Amino acid sequence: MENNPFSAPSIEDAKLYASWGLDISYMVNWCITPEQYKDLTGKDYTAPTTATTTA
């Protein structure tokens, strides 16, 4: 994150976090692409879904 604590994470940060085994899915479409996610984790990115229920 460079030296600014308020800056968005970079691809380098994502690489580091992934190497630590952390979940970096929250970074997709913010600072990395789904393709970069797959390159870093070896997994396809699946967008989260919101379940809606009707009564």
Automatic annotation (TrEMBL):
Record's protein name: XkdX family protein
InterPro entries per record: XkdX (IPR010022)
Pfam families: Phage_XkdX (PF09693)
